[in-house]
Amino acid sequence: MAMKKAVIFDLDGTLSDSIHSIKLCADKALEPFGYGPFSVKQYCYFVGDGAANLIKRALAAGGDRDLVHFDEAFERYLEIFAQNCMYEVKPYEGVRELLASLKEKKIAIAVLSNKPHEETVRVIESLFGRNFFDVIQGQEEGLPIKPSPEGVFRILDRLGMAARDILYLGDTATDMKTGKSAGAFTIGALWGFRDREELEENHADAVIEKPLQLLDYIGREP
């Protein structure tokens, strides 16, 4: 494998263990309507496709299948999440070491998340510091959410690279679809929110159990 020049990371469930912040905010947003609280395991399957889909899935699980309360609940979630996006959030074990190794190898690092852009930046900068990542891209108006590959293409444009130059790492079917649609070598992370079966069914090129195993796929200088 030719040497890769960059790695694009998903955020929630890949870089950051953030399920408790998501659960806290969504449970608070849904409480006035009589829904929840839901379990951590349930939230692991509600997440992955943006904040709007998170609230839609939680409402449907609570019995509001017509999403009667969606507009109000979604607005509440965004307000609450803006204040609590760092609640009990921490990097997964081995992530800091992986990022340090990539930096040492002069490999660019980027983040692509379906989390709102401002909160994506806040989480990354809180965990890793300002200007640590080369590109941070969250959900913002005009950019389709994953599994659209448009976010990957935007990052590649900013890095001046092509899909063949990168690895894409994520923990859900959405991530596998995103990376494959962009034409990138796509790796599934087993420490996140979903299991091996989901990742392999969605055509992960590789699946790893620990962050540092990603280094096996960086390749070598030709």
Tell me the series of helices and strands, N- to C-terminal. EEHHHHEHEHEHEHEHE
Supply the number of helical segments. Answer: 9
Question: In which order are the strands of the major sheet placed?
Answer: 5-4-1-6-7-8
Pick out the low-confidence regions. none
Distance between the termini: 9 Å
Count of beta strands? 8
Estimated radius of gyration? 17 Å
* Shape category: globular
Largest sheet: 6 strands, parallel
Assembly level: single chain
Mean pLDDT: 96
Strand content: 15-25%
Structure classification: alpha/beta
Give the helix proportion (percent range): 40-55%
Notes on the protein architecture:
It is a single chain. The protein has helices at residues 19-30, 40-46, 51-62, 70-84, 95-104, 117-128, 150-159, 173-182, 196-201, and strands at 6-9, 16-17, 90-91, 108-116, 135-139, 166-170, 185-189, 206-208. The protein is of the alpha/beta class and 222 residues long. It has a six-stranded parallel beta sheet, sandwiched between helices. α9 links the parallel β7 and β8 (206-208). α1 crosses α4 and α3 crosses α4 (70-84). The chain is globular and about 60 Å long. The mean pLDDT is 96.
